[in-house]
Records
---
Amino acid sequence: MKNKDLDEILNLVRKPARYINCELNSHPADMQNDFSIVLCFADLYEIGASNLGLEILYHLINEKKLARCERAFCPDDDMGNILRQRGISLFSLESNSPLKSFDIVGFTIQSELCATNILNILDLSNIELFAKNRADGDPLIIAGGPALTNPQPLCDFFDLFVLGDGEEAIEDIICVCRKFKNKISRQALLKELSKIEGVYVPMFYQEQYNADGTLKSITADNQIKPIVKKRLLNLSNAYFPAKKIVPFIETVHNRLNIEVARGCPGRCRFCQASKYYRPWRQRPVEQLLELVRNGIAFSGYEQISFSSLSCSDYKDLDKLLIETNNLYADSKISISLPSLRCTKRSVEIAKYINKDKRPTLTFAPEAGSDRLRNVIGKYLSQDDIAQTLLSAYSMGWEVVKLYFMIGLPTETLDDLADIKNMLAIIKSQAKKMQFTITASPFVPKAQTPFQWAPMESDEKINEKIKYLNTIKNANVRAHN
């Protein structure tokens, strides 16, 4: 892509900063490196730029000089239409190089809903959609991420998948690819890559189906491992970037995001992420405090988010919050914790957050009744939830967000009625407390105990949303 052509296109699209380079702490393209990889996020820049997994791999590859590593995101419709009309291939951010010119095109897949965006990116890049049609000179198309608890629906489109943690696996993949670049056939290279722990190459596995279309078996070719186990990382000494990229435009998570732990000690029966990232692993608190100091110094962010699937279970969370507050006691820096259990322990922890004001507290009871929470493995009683919220109210919190799922297995309107009853009890004792309820339809996920449970019909889901809208003490929001 020539600069004058890019300048002309950027004048024609909304938010041109989605497609330009040189954000603070990004890496200039190392055009002297003889191996290249572009990391793609199959959604808009504002969403993908906030993805921690992509940023970890991007910095790791560039800092270790494993390859020339660049980024690409799914263009909005206006940019996509212009690229098609002008016959221009989708290009990377850092060097504006066509995606097809890279040795590896890697995707992080967070949700099944991104599948069509993946195909759109490949099509805009003039890369064959189907793996079987790609030739020796084409880039390897690889993927990782939590949506790959079941990679089978995407097998036709990818050359290989990385199952589990990607930090060490991507180093191994690049090493093998560099060793055999331009020396062996594509199929022979994929066979070498299939030997790497956590790597699944679909072309070497044969599927058999029953008469009703259900899967009967998957059999590995000779000399191919029959079972691919997910890759697991020791988080205590794992790489984490010191310098977070600061985008030119506001992103979904516009803050310094530091991962305190990976996995989850909970056993919720609907949860795909906890299954994919299991077991529960924690970063040392001293390492986290160093990341805080470097992250603030190199980015200028005024908000720190300590992230994991269950922050309140991090063993040294009190120390982490106290030390961070001590470091920045005289500044405007605030702390957020995105995932707290609805327990008194969480309220005690929350007192270290934004000490001068009381922001919104967010909890996810998931279900309305004790019975249904026991069914789904979210072991919280109605009394636990009420006492937690009343304790929060006594400490100054007046705004609470509650996340629920609707359409869960065995759910009835009686379970939803318990949401209304619980809020009424709390409101009678905490008259100024404001509630926002977000209701999300249950979607069965692969590798979870509920993977074979049916999803409820539109009619039943809409009926339940209509019922929730009758709750007078809350602002109810429902997902489509």
---
Amino acid sequence: MNITHIVPSIEEEASGPSYSVQALNIALRSLGAHSRIAVTGVAPAISENIYTFPRQKFVFRLGRSPEMLRWLRNEANGHKIDILHSHSLWMMPNVYPGWVSRRSGTPLIVSPRGTLSSWALQRSRYTKFAFWYVLQKRAIENATLFHVTSEDEYKDVRRAGFGQPVAIIPNGINVAPGTPSRTVAEKKTLLFLGRIHPVKGVDNLLRAWVAVQQKFPQWHLLIVGPGDADYLREMLSLATALGAARTNFHGPLYGADKIAAFRAADLFVLPTYSENFGIAVAEALAAECPVITTKGAPWSGLISRQAGWWIDIGVAPLVSAFEQAMSQTPETLRAMGAAGRVWMQDEFSWQNIGSRMVATYSWVQNGGPIPPWIRIG
């Protein structure tokens, strides 16, 4: 089975698809599938079998790449692709697979990767409205199947008017070997780690932190990640204006440094407005760090697994969660973190996720009994 994944870019390591598409590719190849990735721009050497194509400077943000389109057409016409799997929307690399599928008859799977959420659709909505009706909708309306990572994202696909089968398969997570060592320290760390972007709710985080900082003087807030320079300056100014004490902004961390940050933290917080998955939540749990996140992210299992708090979006719910979480004993927080790690090992290993994706590709190609994670209606 030859699967070609198409994603606009994997240059930004902090973004979800940069990690998840490459990790999926590795998992599929370990299971014997002939899987590869086609991207525009440069590609970090994290995965293997990555084909890169230049982006034209004209309307650069759309990722136009005639070279990518030509290559996809040649590969499909030469019967070298059994499944086209397009990740994300709103750029030309997410239009090309639809064109190629329509001409060649190659099955197309579309993973929106959160780009059909209500929050995402409101960003640059007039540009997206035009792009949708001119290019994007027609490119994916004949998709064989949609792949989503959560129940909420399934609803986004249906709300957009698509009736095709939908596979609900979450992203996976690499659980580092060994048990994270945690020591009881006087200084406690509340960690945010991710893109410093309006969707992540960093403004709400700062306001909620200021509301509790005097009550919990042993805690400090660490905000880690890359961000647009203007927005980062805005958040730094907001922190100063609010009088945020014991608050540090840090640049992005990757690889072992990122894992170390999760393992050193006592609580992880993602006060997001919208996530199709929220890979940082899984990374924190895999590192035995309990989590506070909002109902903008599909992590209701935090409650049933007793691994954290799943709250409404906004400052007041965040303040309440902070007061509850920071009042817990170190032993309770460690137990919650350990429960989260077991959860990740049980349900979110990439081997497990890869096996489900292989079964999905096989069903698309050959039919047969419908896998239980695929919704027909």
---
Amino acid sequence: TLGVLQLLVAGAMIGMRLPPVLRSLHEATGVSIWIAAFALAYLARLASRTPTPALSAAAADVRAAERAGAPAAASRRAPQQSVAIIVARGTDH
């Protein structure tokens, strides 16, 4: 949405020769796009670091298997996070 607004303001700025006060709307929209991009990247990074309860339980099972003397190949199978888990976890916070 902000990208479309940015294009519309840029077109109006060129085609309608907007006054400098209204041209600042173009800059403000651009800053809003950058802030949104960095905020979403930061939230995605936080979501990728926070373990989910299911993954924590699976990791505890792997540690228990290591202590019980399970074969090395079986004990090293760590649960893998998928994009779906990361996205779903982001909506919980």
---
Amino acid sequence: CADRYDRINAEASAAAPGSGGLLFLPYFKGSGAPAWNPDAKGTFYGLTLSTTRGDMARAILEGIVADMAENLSLIESLSGPKHTVIAAGGLTRLPEYNRIQANLFGRPVTCASESEATALGAFISAAVSLGLYPSHAAAFSAASAAWEQKTWPPQPDLQARYRAYRDARRALIEKLFR
């Protein structure tokens, strides 16, 4: 399994940021926040004969993160700027995914060495319910005490490219689904 992640990461890393103009919309069951469109469909837009498997892998990662960036922008419009993003989940095993997050969010992204947030949440809930820990915070502290963290900073030279990427993606979504 780790070998599969390493191959995906290597191919996505080899592709240029912006995936050679390839845009991916990850709407296999409609789109969620912030656009909310149950009729939206997943798609690759901009495929050419020179599109590589690495471009497609990177476009998938960029498409997922771009939706998260839109949600982060919405949250910040309501609550103020966030200076760091703490990320979890299976895709955080891919270093390139974390770099893409930092660049599309325009701020540092910190991930723990343990990426399985759902399993951690289940453990914390069960441990508190069973009385093993007095609070969710105490259970989290116990579970995460030995974890290492890594932070990926945004790359300033990619910020303009990713702003243009997000603008092109928003325009495509507007044309296709609104």
